[in-house]
Structure of Cytidylate kinase:
Amino acid sequence: LSRMVVAIDGPSGSGKSSVSRGVAARLGLRYLDTGAQYRAMTYWMLQNKIDIADPAAIAADAGAPAIESGTDPAAPAISVDGHDVAVAIREADVTGAVSAVAAVPEVRARLIALQRQIIGIGGIVVEGRDIASVVAPGAGAKIFLTASEDARAARRNTENGGGAGTVAATREALTRRDSVDNRTNALAAASGAMVVDATELTLEQVIDQVARIVIHAA
Ligand code: C5P
């Protein structure tokens, strides 16, 4: 278990982050949020006024920002050029631009190399979209976490602190991001992945189920 790589992939709002952190904490593993890295890259592009609609401009600067990720599941840290961006990368402007930035091959190549470096000899839960399929195809446990669109929109809406009136808007934004991610960012259950549907489960129940899959695979 101490050298295991646990890949947790899935769409936005599936509860991936809470589940991944919970599983890592319970099993004493490190934790890596690859979505936060794509968000940090996007944050840097916006800060530096790079035209998000211009893939060549994004590609030209994909190597510029220094992105550092912490791996403590109790306190996930992310910085760009030495600045803590954990809060800033969750803002709506970053969320709205991240799929376009993540679709640029130079961005993916750079971040995948960084992710593989952090994964190292293992002992880590890695969450993302393409972990089991691309980043760590040799992962010892592969989980594809999903939930109904309604459940995902409701969860994301609560995270955003929104009232019931904005669930429809949240759902629309989520669906739009999913469709870009599905087309360009490799979101699909990898072969050999265990699909866990969180729609009818509490967070604790999902953590239990995933932890059981990991222990069984170890
Ligand atoms: O998981 P999160 O919602 O923070 O991810 C933000 C975005 O980063 C996703 O919508 C997707 O476009 C991109 N992403 C990716 N590959 C990953 C993780 C995230 O393309 N492994």
In short: Residues 78 and 86 are 6 Å apart (CA to CA). The two ends are 6 Å apart (CA to CA). The first strand starts at residue 5 and ends at 9. DSSP finds nine helices and eight strands in the chain.
